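Q: what sequence does this backbone want?
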């Protein structure tokens, strides 16, 4: 099973084992040349509410024709599903990956946390970090006119190259 979400700027894809009963999800449909797999589209506000329900308790989900029902303990939450086909998100990712970076997750996370302090200080624009490949690893840079510049170098296994530095949101 694949869960996909976007906020218009970022795309989140999470693959997991399909739960029991998911074979009952709506069948594939074709609209405007796109074929959708089994699945449903849940409103963003409903996902927030279901996430809140799930804190500290298990949540069971039931899906009918156009309604998703979430139960946690004595609480039941229901929402109307969005009618339609989720866009073909797979097209966002390149079919070939010429550049691969393998890096220790904890090292990357702590470096991004340190750089976010610099880039976000005094601004509401968010935390942007620039990534450059510099063997034997990567260099992360963040700058802010009030806080100065931060540079972090992290060891990584790098295959391929980037034609230019890559800018990412660290938030």
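A:
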């Amino acid at each position: 099973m694949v869960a996909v979400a976007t906020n218009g700027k970022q795309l989140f894809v999470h693959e997991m084992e399909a739960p029991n009963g998911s074979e009952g999800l709506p069948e594939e449909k074709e609209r405007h040349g796109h074929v959708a797999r089994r699945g449903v589209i849940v409103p963003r506000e409903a996902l927030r509410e279901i996430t809140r329900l799930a804190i500290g308790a298990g949540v069971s989900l039931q899906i009918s024709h156009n309604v998703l029902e979430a139960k946690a303990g004595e609480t039941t939450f229901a929402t109307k599903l969005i009618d339609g086909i989720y866009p073909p998100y797979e097209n966002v990712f390149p079919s070939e990956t010429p550049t691969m970076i393998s890096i220790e997750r904890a090292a990357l996370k702590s470096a991004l946390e340190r750089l976010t302090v610099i880039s976000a200080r005094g601004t509401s624009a968010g935390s942007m970090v620039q990534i450059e490949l510099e063997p034997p690893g990567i260099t992360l840079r963040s700058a802010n006119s009030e806080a100065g510049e931060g540079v972090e170098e992290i060891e990584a296994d790098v295959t391929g190259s980037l034609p230019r530095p890559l800018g990412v949101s660290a938030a």
